[in-house]
Write a structure and sequence with these properties.
The chain has 347 residues and is an alpha+beta fold. It has 13 helices and eleven strands. A hairpin with an 8-residue loop joins β7 and β8.
């Protein structure tokens, strides 16, 4: 890095490093880190950004938490207590430490190559369709208007949380955005479900779908890529007499488009998962992880044999508190529902 000029306060053409050192430097790529592809300039200088990423990997935390720790240490302050994400405070309660999950994050405004490069530079293995087991992949989605999607490996617990946080930040740094055409799909590992659990999950989702829709953008409630469950599909699920993976997988039909349901079972025969397709696209890790926790609470309610018939979102969230939905996430989702209803403040 070039010699640091003796600049003590910000002025036009300069910016202050926020990733630890606090120095005010010329606002050029010579001093500040620039995201590949998008050309977006970081608020961290070229010395601090690599050290910050190493700190995050070493501690197993997200970039934001690593930044808190690093800045406090450099400034000689006590390291602040962790501000946990909704899911981090409910790893045990929502069984996020045991039940696996995976995410598919659709994005616009950047290329597959740039997105994959940004994820690799953030420290995670990432490739394309032929990625090795345990790596992320960035691939074409096929949805009109969607540039690509970042598909996770099988994730679990705190490490899964960390990877989602890293990838979301990497995608934004690569210039990724979301639009009405993009969605978020979450897969939950459900190899432990019995036939009665499957029936309860399908029944509960169908009976509570109006309340569930209150948690997503209005554009998703009538989107043909995540249609509501219909009575025929529910009846087919109820009619099953044995836990046959292909029977579970075909309750919505066998045509290609039959997978475009808000709750999709087509992935069960090959992957042992159920896919929740309802959520709008986002690169906000907090939204993604809260949605993961919500889905897993719905699964736990089904495993407990509980019938859910809530028709309003607030009542459903309150009920799911009995099945691992943490107070923090319940409050966060409730605020989101109010904002979405009024199409108002971003939460």
């Amino acid at each position: 890095m070039p010699a640091i000029p003796s600049v003590l306060e910000a002025r036009p053409g300069y910016r202050t490093c926020r990733d630890g050192c606090g120095r005010t430097l010329p606002e050029t790529a010579e001093f500040f880190y620039v995201a590949p592809g998008s050309g977006r300039m970081y608020y961290g200088c070229r010395e601090c950004v690599p050290e910050l990423r190493a700190e995050a990997r070493r501690r197993g935390v997200g970039i934001a938490r690593a930044r808190e720790i690093r800045v406090a240490r450099i400034q000689g302050r006590a390291i602040p207590e962790a501000t946990a994400t909704p899911v981090e405070t409910a790893v045990a309660a929502a069984r996020l430490g045991a039940r696996t999950f995976g995410v598919e994050i659709e994005f616009t405004s950047t290329t597959i190559r740039r997105a994959a490069l940004a994820i690799r530079q953030a420290g995670l293995a990432c490739g394309g369709y032929t990625s090795q087991r345990g790596a992320w992949k960035v691939v074409s989605d096929g949805t009109p208007g969607v540039a690509g999607e970042a598909v996770s490996p099988v994730l679990r617990g705190a490490e899964g949380i960390r990877q989602v946080q890293i990838v979301c930040e990497a995608l934004r740094n690569a210039g990724a955005r979301v639009a009405r055409c993009s969605g978020l799909h979450v897969h939950h590992g459900v190899s432990d479900l019995r036939l009665d659990d499957w029936k309860a999950l399908y029944r509960n989702w169908a009976n509570s779908e109006r309340a569930i829709q209150g948690l997503v953008a209005p554009s998703r409630r009538t989107n043909h890529f995540c249609s509501p469950l219909d009575r025929r599909a529910v009846a087919r699920m109820e009619s099953l007499r044995s836990l046959d993976s292909h029977g579970i997988g075909s309750v919505s039909g066998t045509a290609y488009r039959s997978r475009f349901r808000s709750l999709n079972t087509r992935s069960y025969p090959n992957h042992g998962t159920v896919e929740v397709r309802l959520h709008q696209g986002t690169t906000d890790a907090r939204k993604i992880l809260a949605w993961v926790e919500f889905g897993q609470a719905m699964i736990e309610a089904a495993r407990a044999g509980v019938a859910l018939r809530e028709t309003d979102t607030a009542s459903l969230l309150s009920r799911l508190a009995e099945f691992g939905l943490s107070d923090e996430t319940r409050s966060y989702l409730a605020r989101r529902a109010v904002a979405l209803q009024g199409r108002g403040v971003r939460v």
